[in-house]
Amino acid sequence: MTRALLLVDIQLDYFPGGAFPLVEPEAAATAARAVLDSFRAAGDLVVHVFHVSTDADATFFVPGTPGLDFHPSVAPVDGEPILEKHAPNSFIGTGLQELLTDAGVDEVTIVGMMSSMCIDSTTRAAHVLGFTATVVADACAAPDLTLGGVTVPGASVHAAFMAALDGSFATVTTSDALSR
Hints:
The chain is of the alpha/beta class. The chain contains five helices and eight strands. The chain has helices at residues 25-42, 96-102, 115-128, 154-165, 175-178; strands spanning 3-8, 45-51, 82-85, 107-113, 132-141, 145-147, 150-152, 171-173. The strands form two sheets. The chain has a six-stranded parallel beta sheet. Strands 6-7 form a two-stranded antiparallel ribbon. Strand 4, helix 3 (115-128) and strand 5 form a beta-alpha-beta unit. Helix 3 packs parallel to helix 4.
């Protein structure tokens, strides 16, 4: 199989001091860096995807703000494709499917943010499009979510989404297990 790493939305707005900090994004970025290093060392395709909001009322990923920048620990290097997206699914309007297909990729490894939105949407889309998907759980992060006065802690949100993806849409693993 030919594989590619998709780094999705590891952007400054999701970190402390950003407009929408997640739960433990630093730990996720550290794990994502370990995965990134292994893909670079193997010479595999690495694709960076970043979100820019097109909603006039957006509170994060606002065009022209520093929050759009990649976290420095996983910043692209020369030659790595960078794709801008405007929807949770990284395949919508980005050319990602064509990029992967043209490169002969049939297996994608997905890391990034948010587990409950863009990682979930991108993983399910990859599966539907015929890619074998792996999600690296410790290289992803989620926010606390609230519904009807009940707050679900980010760790629980993350675990629920990883559990839902595992086995049906992807293999969910850890950065340590992936490197073995």
